[in-house]
Amino acid sequence: MRYAVISDIHSNLEALDAVLNYLGDNPVDRIVSCGDITGYGPDPAACIKKVWSLSNFKSVIGNHDAAVAGKIDVSGFNIEAQAAIKMNAENLSDADKSRLASLKMSIKEDKLVFLHGSPRDPLHEYLYLLEKMKENIKYFRGDICFVGHTHQPLIYEYVSDKKDNFFEVRKDVEVFNFEPGARYIVNAGSVGQPRDNNPAACVVFFDTKNLTLTFRRIPYDVEKTQEKMRQAGYPGKLAARLGFGI
Ligand code: ZN
């Protein structure tokens, strides 16, 4: 089985299209999203329509999706994120909001788990630190837990309490081989708002046959998205950060 794992599309249609075009040329069996289809960007309705039209697509819910759908309060978000959540919500039909609201906290398939933040707290916890990764490895069953939320691609490898590793993914294409017997938390990065100083969209391929993980960056027309955001009145800071990948 060949998976494409994506995360944090954040209403960025140009970035999503670039990834789906790539997947058109390089098809997979399943596309799984680790949440936050919406929030931040200017095209929530078009992004929802596009992913729901894919026959092999599944997603978990992210914190922005939950806020846009009215399931959680916006007060926990920073001021720009709040503004974008409100604008996204105003641009969505009730049907689209209930689509978002229907997304589950986690998806389990074979020995894989997909969720947004962390196994311990799928909606809110950020996994940046090795210590937090180590704590969280006990909160899921299976070999690999795919997450998003931090918008930074990385791999945590757990062999035992005394032996674990942390790999930051910084190349445009990075191939990683899984160690049989080890367990992993893999952050799929972000399609629509990367925060690792690389503006290109991120997608992760996982092949269950040869246990290979491939991270790939896909450039898209950032300026087009930025222009749409300015036209629609989204906070300038949110448009600007896309250009830097921060
Ligand atoms: Zn996000």
Strand order of the largest sheet: 3-2-1-11-12-9
Biggest beta sheet summary: 6 strands, mixed
Strand pairing plus helix content: what structural class?
Answer: alpha/beta
The backbone outline, from C-alpha atoms, is: globular
Report on this structure.
With 246 residues, the protein is of the alpha/beta class. Helices cover 30% and strands 25% of the residues. The protein contains eight helices and twelve strands. It has helices at 13-25, 44-52, 63-68, 79-90, 94-101, 130-136, 222-232, 236-244, and strands spanning 2-6, 30-33, 57-59, 106-109, 112-115, 144-147, 154-160, 163-168, 173-177, 183-187, 201-207, 212-218. The strands form two sheets. A six-stranded mixed beta sheet has the order 3-2-1-11-12-9. Helix 7 (222-232) runs antiparallel to helix 8. The longest helix has 13 residues, at 13-25. It is globular, with a radius of gyration of 17 Å. It starts with a strand and ends with a helix. Bound molecules: zinc ion. Zinc ion (ZN) binds at residues 8, 10, 36, 62, 64, 149, 151. Residues 8, 10, 36, 62, 64, 149, 151 line the site of zinc ion.
Task: Please specify the SSE layout and strand pairing.
Elements: E1 2-6, H1 13-25, E2 30-33, H2 44-52, E3 57-59, H3 63-68, H4 79-90, H5 94-101, E4 106-109, E5 112-115, H6 130-136, E6 144-147, E7 154-160, E8 163-168, E9 173-177, E10 183-187, E11 201-207, E12 212-218, H7 222-232, H8 236-244
Parallel strand pairs: 1-2, 2-3, 5-6, 6-10
Antiparallel strand pairs: 1-11, 4-5, 7-8, 7-10, 9-12, 11-12
The structure holds zinc ion.
